[in-house]
């Protein structure tokens, strides 16, 4: 029987630049392999192979996708083994807490031909400079889009019935948690619901919510209180000792898009574009904040202003996506240069050594669990 695969993002290209939530997901691990090396050296392929092997052995595996290329993996975690592997190159740098004891660096640089790369140094530096400039343009466009989005939100905030929103929040707290307080410290993980990528917005909501009996789909408009509601529910879950997965917005990491409390078998998430979903199975339920807390007729009264603001917002977002796409093309060119200089048989040997290390660690964890 194969294990369960969980897919998510822990880093994002956002309106506030590159934003990392890696630390939250790697904090409780007992062993972390940090991969070092240049682009195109097979870090993602290596992690996928190791992850798939343990998945086939029946272990659950968390796949952390790359926001600059969602088909690539930036990290994997084996929760039962308390082991993780992460691409430790910029921008997703994991700061070691106990080098050697917890973190172990794996240098893939042994596999490259340095002389060959030196010969291509000028081209590598040019491409890297242009790639960085493309990312900076993307972040600039996203920041401008966020400013426009704030204007969009102000329309609905000005027409919000906060008493009704607070009443709904209180009702949901009672519905979800009742009078339950668990006698333990909550395990809180911060992740991204989705990510702005070179191909547009990408998310893994169906995978993340698979098997949960209850899913609540938050509908509404920008500024209708979805993130505020989610923040209050996440705080309540944590204060009451429930393990909680907090999923931030891939566009604005200060906002929340989803909260999952697996001990209650439930997820509640912002189900509006670009991650718009609708009920598709028993246990799914829509909560429409526009109907609950926004003054009737707001859409109609401000239709012209909303049309203008939404058009500017979409244009800025499209410009950001185009810049990420340009950065991806430049990154692909850099990868080609490195791939020509790599001896992949050495990478294969490194992978085999890691397989042995993880197997030994897994045996040690099994013995410890038996003794306890």
Offer a quick outline of the entry:
This protein is of the alpha/beta class and about 375 residues long.
Describe this structure in words.
The chain is α/β, with parallel strands linked by helices. The protein folds into 2 domains: 5-111 and 343-370, no CATH class; 160-294, no CATH class. 46% of the residues lie in helices and 23% in strands. It is built from 11 helices and 16 strands. The protein has a 6-stranded mixed sheet with strand order 1-5-6-7-4-8, covered by helices on one side. Strands 9-13-14-15-12-16 form a 6-stranded mixed sheet. The chain has a two-stranded antiparallel ribbon with strand order 2-3. β2 (11-14) and β3 form a beta hairpin. The longest helix has 38 residues, at 303-340. The radius of gyration is 23 Å and the shape is flat. Mean pLDDT is 95; it is low at 367-372.
Described by the principal axes of the CA atoms, the overall outline is flat
Largest sheet entry: 6 strands, mixed
- Helix-and-strand structural type: alpha/beta
> Average pLDDT across residues?
95
So how many helices? 11
Give a quick set of tags describing it:
about 375 residues; alpha/beta; six-stranded mixed beta sheet; about 25% strand; flat; P-loop_NTPase; Novel STAND NTPase 3 domain-containing protein; nSTAND3
Topology of this structure?
Layout: E1 5-9, E2 11-14, E3 17-20, H1 22-26, E4 31-36, H2 43-56, E5 61-66, E6 69-78, E7 83-87, E8 103-107, H3 114-119, H4 121-157, H5 162-177, E9 188-192, E10 194-197, E11 200-203, H6 205-208, E12 214-219, H7 226-239, E13 244-248, E14 256-261, E15 266-270, E16 284-288, H8 289-293, H9 298-301, H10 303-340, H11 344-371
Helix pairs in contact: 4-10, 5-7
